[in-house]
Structures are given as C-alpha cells and as structure tokens.
Write a structure and sequence with these properties.
There is one protein chain. The chain has 106 residues and is mainly α. The protein is built from one helix and two strands, in the order ββα. The chain has a domain at 38-101. It starts with 22 loop residues before the first strand and ends in a 5-residue tail after the last helix.
Length: 106
C-alpha cells in the first residue's frame, strides 16, 4: 500500500537572533536532536572584538598617561622641595654672615 501525506513533528522550535548580526556558523542540521546548552548558531563577532581591542588599548593608554603624570608630579614636587632646602640653606648662610658682621635683623 502506498500513501501520500505530510508528517508533522510533535515538537519543533523556531530560532531567532536576539541581537542583530551576521550568522557565521550553523551548527545543526534539520531534524537533529540536541541537548540543552548545545551551540546551535554562531554570530560573527569580529566587529565587537575589534571594538573591544580598541577600548582595551585606550584604557592602557589612559593608565600610562596617568602613571606618567603621577611620576612627573612627584618629580616636580621633589624638585620644589630641593629648591626650598637650597633657599633655606642660603638664608641661614646669609643670616650667619650678617650676625658675624653684627648686623643681624631682629
């Protein structure tokens, strides 16, 4: 006996992307039984990966700039301290000279 008809699966699903993008890979075949967690479709993420690398590079540059600025600030602070020590020392020398000559200010 021969018959013609349509077979309807008792359970089926429709796949849709939650995010826009280009499908890079379809990892299943029609009728394939899959377990929970199995990769079904992979999207092309090359643009997102490039953006991530660019953001990481900007973060690294910002960190380097911050570090360089901190180092410069510390260096300038030490220079200022050394200058004040030299000025203070010169003042002491001048005061001693004046007191030696008997003309120390009150």
């Amino acid at each position: 006996m021969t018959s013609i008809g349509t077979v309807i699966a008792p359970r089926s699903i429709t796949l849709r992307n939650e995010l826009p993008g280009t499908v890079r890979q379809i990892a299943l075949t029609p009728g394939q039984v899959v377990d929970a967690g199995t990769l079904l479709v992979a999207l092309d993420v090359s643009v997102e990966e490039a953006e991530l690398r660019a953001q990481e590079a900007q973060a690294a540059l910002a960190e380097t700039t911050r570090s360089t600025t901190s180092t410069r600030s510390l260096w300038r602070s030490r220079q200022a301290e050394q200058f004040l020590v030299r000025v203070e020392s010169r003042c002491h020398v001048d005061l001693r000279r004046l007191s030696y000559r008997g003309a120390a200010p009150d």
